[in-house]
Amino acid sequence: MTSGSGTRRYRDAKGRPVVVVTGMGLVTSVGRSVDETWAAMRAGRSGIRRITRFPIDGLRTTIAGTVDFMGVEPYSGPDLCFEMARSAAQEALDQAGHTTGEFRGPLYLATPPAELEWEQRIALRKAPLDCSKTGYPRLMAAARTGHFRHVFERYQFASVADRLAGHIGSRGLPISVSTACASGASAIQLGVEAIRRGDTDLAISVGTDSSVQLESLIRFSLLSALSTCNDQPEKASRPFSKTRDGFVMAEGAGAVVLESLESAMARSAEILGVVSGCGEKADDYHRTRSRPDGSAIIGAIRNAISDADLAPDAIDYVNAHGTSTPENDKMECLSLYAVMGERASTVPVSSIKSMIGHTLSAAGAIEAVISLLSLQRGVLLPTINYDEPDPDIALDVVPNEARSARIRHVLSNSFGFGGQNVSLVLSCAD
Fold first, then answer.
1. For residue 273, is it left (φ>0), alpha (ψ between -120 and 50) or beta?
2. Is CB count within 10 Å lower at the N or C end of the chain?
3. Which candidate in 321, 333, 409, 428 is catalytic?
4. pTM over 0.85, yes/no
5. Which parts of 75-202 fold into alpha helices (H)?
6. Nearest to residue 315, comparing CAs of 410, 241, 237?
7. Is 181 among the catalytic positions?
């Protein structure tokens, strides 16, 4: 980020404001902060455990990467989403040196779709209403009574973003994003684009997800998407391994404070890294499957690298989407080869989902933070449970143990159901 004359260059090669990260926050199944999570992951510790939140009798999958230490009582998905987002955002704001309640930028929040839980559905069904119908008419009848305002406040899609915006004091209407497993990366991309356009010089992007609930678990199970390795929870998530049998649902939150380089320098903020490239490409092939030729995933990766004004050879490390599903892992491998050529076999590729599971809407934000930490600390996190290589996936997956390495540019991939694909390029601050 310096020119040949030694003066700071505030714009990139395309004439846009350079967007830097000045604060980061994390909540995962292995820790409630950046340092706790990093220490656990560097040691290769798993956060996958047996589910205790709801009855699991008769379920094919009974494990998940739950966040059970936040103390949300009484439990509800939106409340846990908020508490994780608040914790991660608070950590990021503190590190960036911004005052809570007075944040002068917009909020972009990745969050799962809002759905009533069984407790609320049963309460609505039992309510003495002048309506014999079910579904939407009954919801409207309940709303007319005025007795279910608390349900409305918790379960409208924007509720988590509204509460978080009130807590941090962000400017304007908060933006809620739900682009499946790409949501966290999408929230970061929106913040980057707002700064590049000159709409703001400051933003906070947060991803949060509390989808480990009975109905969600059953739905993913019916898609045969989940691992059934219930007897050894810590071994269930096995990205890129020949024995992988599905992903493990998980919860968590990640947050980054984004600023223009000029803004960060003006207030002498510590610069943790640069969001140098964002790329996206939609895939209309299938609701849950990628196009067989991988064109959308390949396009997202190429777009991110091009947006960063880099060549594929500049990518030193890949933080993989790496879900541990048979099709996704193979498709990601094929896409990396399409972009990088034979060099893909030697570029280190890690999947932290092997340790914390798949945090769905939060994954892109959590993995962006981890990518920045790898750049800062010169450590590539391991892909654990890599006990039996898949001969069809010829990648260096940093198997089972962390590795020291000097890297400058990381590609972080997020590929979601519905063909929603986003890749980010994170770069060193110097």
1. left
2. C
3. 321
4. yes
5. 77-96, 118-126, 136-145, 149-155, 159-168, 183-197
6. 410
7. yes
